[in-house]
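Below is how a single chain appears once it has passed through the pipeline. First comes the sequence as given, then the structure the pipeline wrote out for it. We keep one example in the README because the format questions we get most often are answered faster by looking than by reading.
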Amino acid sequence: MRFLAVLLVLVLACPVWGQGRPPAELDQAFEALRHAPDEQGAGLVEQRIRQLLAARFTPSLTLLMARGQRNLAANLPGEALEDFDAAIILAPEAVDPWFGRALAAHRAGDSPSALRDLQQVLRLEPRHWAALQQLSLWQEAAGDTAGAWRSFEAALVIHPRLRGGEARLRELRRKALGDDA
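Resulting structure:
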């Protein structure tokens, strides 16, 4: 009950998440990521993309996201789910709360909810390479190596300099097509 009261105060105190097209700078950053010359350069662009995605966060949303991440790190997925749920209410168009909730739901053993949340991440931001990477990991764990290969390949199209990316893609391809591939 206390949680709902706090959530209501947060919702009423915060502006509605802005909708619309992502800023041109975000598009440019994703393009720069595709053409980064090396892992170090890609890492810098990656960091900038994360900043741009979080740039419109309100202080309340930033707090909820930090709590959710902290609860995930402490292996408290139920608590993290509450934080990310509240963040989604505040900013349903922001990808980070959906991604965090997907991770928390999966850790809590709710794979169907986790997959729905990853779908929402990719609806909101189809270039979210981390969501595609995560999907690939979950598909591989579920025995869908062909799906894992396709998802990871899509992540590499967006972020070709992912650390260990080419080796992982080769391994997934080998598993999906057989040892001779």
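Residues 77 and 108 are 6 Å apart (CA to CA).

See the next section for the split statistics.
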